[in-house]
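Tutorial handout. Part one gives the primary structure; part two gives the three-dimensional structure as tokens.
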Amino acid sequence: MSKTSFRAALRAAACVLALGAGVAAAPAGATTFTWATANDILGLDPHANNHGVTNTMKENIYEPLVKRQPDGSIRPALAERWEQPNPTTWRFHLRRNVRFHGGEPFTAADVVMSAERVRQNDMAYVLASVTAVRAIDDHTVEMETRAPNPILLQDLVLFFIMSRPWVEANNAMGVARAGQPGANTAFPQLNANGTGPFRVTERVADERTVLVPNPQYWAASEMNHGITRAVFRPIASAPTRLAALLSRELDIMYHVPLQNVQQVQNQQGVRLVQGPTARSIYFAFDVTREESLDEPGRPNPLRDVRVRRAMYQAIDMNTITRVILRNSTTASGLPIAPAIGGHVAALAERLPFDADASRRLLAEAGYPNGFRITLNCPNNRYVNDEAICQAATAMLQRAGIQARLNAVPFGRFLQGGANNEYQFWLLGWTPGNFDMTNPARELLGEGSFNWGRFNDARMNELAREIGTISPDDPRRQQLAAEYWTRYRELLPQIPLHQEPQIFAVRDTVADFTMRVQEDLELRWVRMRGN
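Part two.
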């Protein structure tokens, strides 16, 4: 996809997602805005936990050098402007007169420290192509890349900047991901000090996170949300979440359960806001483990591509789309959405559902009587995630595979994946840079979410070359087609669908703009007057 068509696709999606044409004036009185989703953020550390809900919360508090708009365009944030002295050097001119919530002035030293710190954890991918970050003066930073990277700005939209004095004063240079020792008590996970439009006043894990506007925000004149206090409440139970909305405890909730869409539509003072996302849902395999986790002493059947294809063709995605997802989504044969750079429409058709072919492939691979396998699944992260996994488990059983389901809350699910406890699992992914190079690295290359340790030299080589070519160069799309053709031959994953997003919005909210990267950023909310 060219840069032009990529931006056009995102702008078209943003038009679908925008609610209302006007922007309400901010009310004069105090206004508390409360919103809820199924799972909590995984902490406040901007360099830990590459997780959609968590990343969006970070955007309220911390800022990157450049920021993505709802239409997909990139605008200046902590960097006012930039240029390229040569193909592998980017020079960023930093915004002056910016202060962190704690009062410290923002300087180039904060960017250099943040670059060192972010490399320790899940968010390291934002600087994967960068070999050096150096301060030229207090307000100028240069980044060197190992090869030309024409989409570096897209990579940087989730590179959040922390205060070097604050990190040093609190001995907080280490980064602990959720589930790792010390993560629950790590200072940056419980406290925050960014330059963003909101600051944290209270954080109670699994209960609430409270924010208030930052009165010293450098772009305060652009803020027209009318919020004086914002309360985020994770509510795992969908019925409880819906009841909180209908009893006016919430201003916005998501996801709206598909079975409750009609009920919400009929409620006075509540409206639905819905549209596509850039998140793809997929099943993935451990293709390197030699011994089966479910049948110790026996070989891992997922190492054989015939077994992987058999499992793929045993999944009747048309039925899942119609029954489980109520035709709210689009099935796909690729793990990236059409809005993502490098999507190839001609290769997005799924392999056909064919249970008989599945049984033949299993027999050819030496498993005429199937094998035991556990499908690991979150039960509170994605739209109808557990129901999708229940349906898939039954379909695999009909093809002769003794499948069982292990569905757990998302935090525990992530910990199991990071600890190498799964052979077969469901996950959803939105590429942080809106380009195929992100999943190519994070899910299918050296990234931390490649839990099955899949590794193909040709795909890795193609991904590296694609990352050096401008989105406007036709050769990039040709190489993308070669990459996805190889992907379809090896089947390290079973792509399922692009996830929908459905928000319920009370009439206390005058305007709310959704983004194709999903989740809720406070700057795009406009409250009505009291």
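Part three, for discussion. The longest strand covers residues 270-285. The CA atoms of residues 40 and 205 lie 7 Å apart.
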